[in-house]
Amino acid sequence: MKQEEALINKYGKDSGLKVPEGYFSDLEANIMASLPPYKKAEKVVSLTGWQRVRPYVYLAAMFCGIWLMMKVFHTATQPMNMSLDNPPAALVEMIDGEMDYDMHYLPFSMMDFDNEDEDFIMSYDNIEDFKDDFYKVGG
Q1: Which of residues 55 and 29 earns the better pLDDT score?
Q2: Dihedral angle computed from the Cα positions of residues 23, 24, 30 and 35, in that order, rounded to the nearest 10 degrees
Q3: How far apart are CA 139 and CA 134, in angstroms?
Q4: Residue 86: beta bridge partners?
Q5: Residue 110 in contact with residue 118, Cβ under 8 Å?
Q6: DSSP H helical ranges for 1-139
Q7: Is the dihedral angle over the CA atoms 116, 98, 94, 128 positive or is it negative?
Q8: d(CA 34, CA 79)
């Protein structure tokens, strides 16, 4: 406290800064007079239902596109897993003769083979005979 009293005695309480007389009473009027004229707000246009939903539809379409691209790339990079241990179901049923098949659903047609290939295919009664011959020739 002694230091504060010494400073007050030496310099006084007056900071040297003064506000002119009536400054705060005229302040609002002076500021409003210096501002440019106020423009009226434009009429608000209401949005249609589609304009409200459109961003969400676009977002969903984007995610569907990304999912589809990832699915295509994943499928394209996977090796074909076709072996005698896991033959396509249509081929197994055709060889076993258990299915009355329609050639339009098969990935190939008997017309694609010449007579020798047709005789070769028809010489097997089931997939097990074909496996036995395949493994004899292969190794």
Answers
A1: 55
A2: 140
A3: 8
A4: 83
A5: yes
A6: 2-11, 23-34, 49-77, 89-96, 115-122, 127-138
A7: negative
A8: 77
Q: What's at 94, amino acid-wise?
A: M
Rounded CA Rg of the chain? 45
| Residue 97: both structure tokens together | 């003769």
At 86 the three-state DSSP class reads: strand
Backbone angles phi, psi at 86, to 5 degrees: -140, 70
| Bridge partner residues of 83 (DSSP) | 86
Length of the chain: 139
Q: Residue 133 — very low, low, confident or very high, per pLDDT cuts 50/70/90?
A: confident
pTM over the 0.70 mark: no
The token pair at 54 is 């459109």
User: Which backbone phi and psi does 83 adopt, to 5 degrees?
Assistant: -140, 175
Cα→Cα distances 47→21, 52, 133, Å: 54, 7, 72
In the numeric block, which tokens belong to residue 96?
A: 């076993």
Residues 6+ apart with CB under 8 A from 56: none
Other C-beta atoms within 10 Å of 101: how many? 13
- Measured at the CA of 125, the angle between CA 96 and CA 118, to 5 degrees, comes to 100
